[in-house]
Write the structure tokens for this entry.
Amino acid sequence: MGKCWEEKCTKCGLCCHEKAVYGKKLVIDLDSWCEFFDPKTKQCTVYAERFTRCERCKKMTYLKAMFASYLPESCGYVAWARSHHLRFAKRRILQFIHSKNCPQEDSDDHLYKAFQA
């Protein structure tokens, strides 16, 4: 896999975010990303050394493009696999969340006090 393979990446930055698969759903947390991800540019700040600097960063391979269910349909590698009829992973419903907007435990204090009255 050479430069041509790397150029399939659309540089969306979604692979740098925390994600989880729940049944038929792929959930991507837009507020949680790798320490080397720049949210303004949506680029990796250590791209050339990403595999040695970040143990979570894994090289995209043909097999992952074909089978990894944690990749969104918008991924350039997924698009490549689909265009060659080589995508075998289940289609998932994509859901974006913002964990910073989730209520914190402290914010439920008013509910606790209401039940105490």
In short: The beta strands are 17-22, 25-33, 37-38, 43-44, 93-97.
